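Sequence in, structure out. Go.
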Amino acid sequence: MHSKRLVVAAIVLPLMYLYVMHLPAVYFFYLLAAVTLAAQWEFYSMYRVSGLLKYTGLASGIAVLYASFYAKDHFMTVLFASVMVMMVLRLLVKRTPLYSLQDLAAPLTGILYAPGLLAFQAQLRQIGPEWIIFLYATVWASDSMAYYIGKGYGKKKLYREVSPNKTVAGAFGSLLGGIIGALVMKVALIPAISPAQVMLIGIVTGFISIIGDLIESMFKRDAGVKDSSIIIPGHGGILDKIDGSLFAGPVLYWMLAIINT
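Output:
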């Protein structure tokens, strides 16, 4: 299992760097749209969302992502219009009002959880492609350090009810990995940012990565599945790989907005 993780990472990371840094922004939108569709599909599969609600939710997710990339001023309009459409569909598809909130919870959460959060990465790409590399490199460093330190030194569980394998030592490893990853990215890609700022971003990214991971674990345990899917050998599903960046992306965008004001 561990060797598969290393092989996939060794192949994917360089390709991602070349793709993001050297192709026009529209190609990143295509990549983000594909990831969004896969992640939202996995979420809907976990919660057995089907039929018209499923496919309308997927289409709404792409519309939300498109608005974030090409029509930022209309992002909230598209998001709330999507919510309204889903509510109208539930009204018309099932004549009984019973369980209507239950029927809508997973489809609407799927729109917010995958395309809604990934939309912030579209905004990061418009600030500069280097920030996408910064985000994923820092999250990857956080995850890796959490894994190795947690495996080597972890005894006390961090949150047994949600994720039995995560430890307090692993959480500290995530913070350390976030700092290391951010510092490496500063030297390699973003020298203009100050050491104090990059340290803060690294710590916050390490912390938020843990939160994102725990939230996906919460959803999986609620849905009764081990992995969101088996699409990536040794890694699980798309959601399993981007859970940390789902939350770290918006937080990084907000931190850059504060730094640049």
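Check: DSSP finds nine helices and two strands in the chain. The mean pLDDT is 91.
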